[in-house]
Automatic annotation (TrEMBL):
One of its GO terms (cellular component) is membrane. Its main location: membrane. Keywords: Membrane, Transmembrane, Transmembrane helix. This is UNC93-like protein 1. It is found in: Membrane.
């Protein structure tokens, strides 16, 4: 909360675009803001946009899997203090996953499309291995079964396997999310268009999370939830490959529109 509050206050110090001057003395062009009616119409159009329809399974699965991982793996297998420790490593793994896949998708090849294909392939490989581990783990217990919860100090070797699995879930989550955001960012060079794409993605993602919690509250079996989660992510990979193949270009020209803010080349600095 403290960091969020500090960030909010710092945002008040940002200069308006009209007062930003580049090192060569030129000023940034003023941003032409949209209006409510335009945004409503453009948002509705997103539901007919074939590019975003290809992203829907990935968006839906993005937070759908949290219910299974948090409630039915960490929440069922471990005691209270170990769950807290596990979450430190889960979110810590997100750092490594995002940095790793970020490098692949930003720097591994000169061709942007090739980076997209390779990145999706890497995430698909990791996803298959990790969810296979999840299946092996899930075969050992089921909903309603009374389990002896694991403790990081007292459970010895029994703790290691489920812990590594949960850590890997965090690793995969950041890789998957970063991959999808990269694909979305490669679809257009207009920040206004991309903001709508990102909003669509987050909206579908939130809806998926809400449905997942409701599914779990109706006591759907753990195995069924695992299969749905694995299936959704698996379906996402070929759809994203198709999207990269059809919509992502290797040149530096705008794929869809040109930016209306600060896309012109050159470093910027604050002017009077």
């Amino acid at each position: 909360m403290a960091f969020m509050a500090a960030g909010t206050l710092l945002s008040l110090a940002i200069l308006p675009p009209s007062k930003v001057v580049r090192d060569d003395g030129t000023r940034c062009s003023n941003i032409k803001h949209s209006n409510v009616s335009t945004e409503v119409v453009e948002t509705l159009k997103l539901f007919l946009n074939w590019k975003l329809l290809l992203i829907v399974p990935a968006a839906w699965s993005g937070n759908f899997l949290y219910t299974y991982q948090f409630n039915n793996v960490n929440g069922v297998l471990f005691n209270l203090r170990t769950r807290g420790l596990n979450n430190v490593f889960y979110w810590g793994a997100e750092i490594f996953g995002s940095v790793g896949i970020g490098y692949i998708m930003d720097f591994s090849f000169q061709s942007r499309r090739m980076r997209g294909f390779v990145g999706i392939g890497v995430v698909a490989l990791f996803g298959t291995v990790i969810w296979s581990g999840g299946l092996a783990n899930q075969l050992k217990y089921s909903r309603g079964e009374k389990l002896q919860t694991l403790d990081f100090k007292d459970s010895g070797g029994d703790f290691a396997g489920p812990f590594i699995l949960y850590f890997s879930f965090g690793l995969l989550d950041s890789m998957f999310q970063s991959m999808v955001y990269w694909v979305i960012g490669a679809l257009a060079d207009d920040s206004e268009i991309l903001s709508r794409y990102a909003g669509f993605y987050k909206g579908v993602q939130g809806a998926g999370a809400a449905v997942a919690w409701q599914v779990d509250s109706h006591n759907v079996s753990f195995m069924s939830q695992l299969i749905v989660n694995w299936g959704l992510t698996t379906i996402s990979y070929p759809l994203l490959v198709i999207l990269v193949f059809l919509a992502v270009k290797d040149d530096i020209k705008a794929v869809e529109g040109t930016t209306k803010s600060t896309m012109e080349a050159g470093p910027t600095s604050a002017g009077p």
